[in-house]
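Entry 14. Ran structure prediction on the chain below.
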Amino acid sequence: MEADEQMTRPQVRRILVIIPTYDERENLPRIVPEVLAQDPRIDILVVDDDSPDGTGVLAEEMRQSEPRLHLLSRAGKEGLGKAYIAGFRWGLARDYDLLLEMDADLSHPPGHLPRIIGAADEHDLVIGSRYLGGRVTVVNWPISRLLLSYFGSFYARTITGLPVTDATGGFNCFRRQVLEAISLDRIRSNGYSFQIELKFRAWKNGARIVEVPIVFTERDTGESKMSKKIVREAVWKVWWIRILYMFGRL
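Output, C-alpha cells:
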C-alpha cells in the first residue's frame, strides 16, 4: 500500500464478514444473529461449498428474511483459501470498506468484532490473536492441537520473518485497499498456510498491522476441517513463500 493511502483512510461505511461453510447447518442459525447484532454496518456473506448437510439451502432460507445476509454458492469443496478469495472478490465488487474472515463454528466469538473493527480505524490489517503478549487464550483444545497451532505460528514467523504472533489465525479484518494491493490471483496457498501467505503479502505491501487479543473457543458442534494434508502443505509452503519473495517472484 502507498503511504498516502495509509495517511488518508476513508471512513468505514460498510463491513462484510465472510463466513466459509461446509456442513455447518447447526452452527449457521447461531452465528448469523450474533454477528449482525455487533454493528449495524455489518453484512454477512456465507460462502458455501455445496454442503451435503444442506447448509447452503438453510442460508438461502435465512436470507429471505434477513437482507444483511448474503449467500455465495460454489459447486464443491475447493478449500478454505479459495472460499475466502471468492468472498473477497464478491465484497470488493460491492464496495465494502472492511472485509473480515471468520469461522462458522463460533470459535471466533462475535463479541470481539467491535474491538477488531475499531482497531481498523488506525490500521490496515487487524488480527484477532490467540497468542498475544506471550499468553495463550485458547479454550477446550487438546494439547496436541494447541501445540501444533502455537508452534506452527512460531515456525511461520521464523521462516518468513512475519512480525505477528498469530500467523495462522483466521479471525482477521482487512481494509479493502489491502486486498486490492495483494493481487488475489497470485495467492497459491489454500489450507492452513493460506492465512500465512495472506498476512505476508499484506505486510510486504506496507500494510499497517495490529493484533488484538481474542479468546478462541473450540467448536461444540460439528467437526473440525483440519487434516494432515493441510498441515503438510503449511510445512513446505512457508519455505515457498520465503524463497519466491527472495527472488522477486511472489
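The longest helix spans residues 228-246. Will compare against last week's run tomorrow.
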